[in-house]
Design brief:
The chain contains four helices and no strands. The chain is mainly α and 70 residues long.
């Protein structure tokens, strides 16, 4: 079987899952009802390296398409 994702992609995917579970899921219904995603969430996502993950440093996290797809 062909593996599309490398080990570092899987680690990144796990990081994203943990972030969603701790930072998004507890507040999702409230944000959905308000129709607003707090700016602080976007900042926190950036601090964690989850935004622009396929762009090279200093603009992103230096990942590749696999990181963006994960």
């Amino acid at each position: 079987m062909r593996r599309v994702f490398r080990d570092d992609h899987e680690l990144f995917r796990d990081q994203v899952k943990r972030f969603i579970a701790s930072e998004i899921a507890p507040h999702y219904a409230e944000w959905e009802a308000a129709g607003v995603t707090p700016r602080a969430l976007w900042r926190r996502s950036g601090e964690e390296g989850l935004l622009n993950c396929a762009l090279p440093d200093p603009y992103g996290a230096g990942g590749d398409f696999g990181h963006a797809a994960a």
